[in-house]
Specification:
Layout (H helix, E strand, L loop, with lengths): L1 H18 L3 H30 L4 H15 L2
Helix pairs in contact: 1-2
Length: 73
């Protein structure tokens, strides 16, 4: 997802730079539009990392449970 997110961000930034004469305005609009989207994606990645790379015994047990539930489907 990181590459896709980077490409989407670059595309949006290019559009904002094209639409605005002032680069500061373009960056502000880009940040206002893209930051919430990027943060929502990144929060899901952090959850996935806890399942795939648990740091505590509790996270390890939750990871086992998550993977065993997926295999039952």
């Amino acid at each position: 997802m990181g590459t896709s997110l980077a490409l989407q961000g670059a595309t949006l930034l290019a559009k904002e730079l094209d639409a605005n004469d002032d680069y500061k305005t373009a960056f502000k609009k880009y940040n206002e539009t893209f930051k919430p989207f990027a943060e929502s994606i990144q929060s899901r990645i952090k959850w996935g990392l806890k399942v795939q790379l648990p740091e505590t015994e509790e996270e390890l047990q939750a990871s086992f449970l998550a993977f065993s539930n997926d295999n039952k489907k």
